[in-house]
Amino acid sequence: MRKYLIKDISISEEAEKTIMFQIQSTCHPFTKCLIKSLSELNQQLQEEFSNSEDITETLNKLPIKPQDELFKRVFGCGLQCPFCKVPCEAGGKDHKKHHAAVHRPKGLGGYRIIKNDKLAETLCTTDVHSECKFRNTDTKWELHPFKKYTKYYPDWHIPPDSSIEASDYWKYVLVKYNDRFAEEYKAKPADVPEAWRRITKEQALKGLKDAYNIK
Predict the structure, then answer these.
(1) pTM of the predicted model, to two decimals?
(2) How far, CA to CA in Å, does 58 sit from each of 28, 51, 62, 65, 108?
(3) How confident is the model at residue 51 (pLDDT cuts 50, 70, 90)?
(4) In a domain, 144, yes or no
(5) Residue 155 lies in a domain
């Protein structure tokens, strides 16, 4: 103690020895008093909260509803990826770029392969890394390279990475509801890889948890 206080307080070694020899008590009385004080504080807090008004009434009186603000932050800005329709995961509305950690096969968002009208099974992250092109109402149905998607969607960030695969969950969804998605989007069913057909429901749910780091 003397060592750490020496810069602020001058304590001689003799004074230190004198003080130490005069201390006769142990730590037991202190811990006993501390435990007693904590017990009394615990009881005091319980009485204070039990006598307060119902928490629902308190929330209803607030000008800003906490549950609404929490929902807005979790829900995000509400915009979707222009290709696979995955929601933007940037919290709230105050962000410069929209992004998503996990993109889906584009067929789930209605995109189809131009040459055969089949739902596309590839990911946006793969296509923006390729020489593939797309067209839609934004491009006025003119073909445009995926690589230069920011011309039409400058607020989105889609990392170009051909090594990223769809999670087993979205693979499973596309396989299971391939015909229904095709009917909904007035297209032909996607040519899903054979390996996707062997994914079980349990593997799909595990893939969903892994994608969002859910334990």
Answers:
(1) 0.60
(2) 43, 13, 7, 10, 43
(3) low
(4) yes
(5) yes
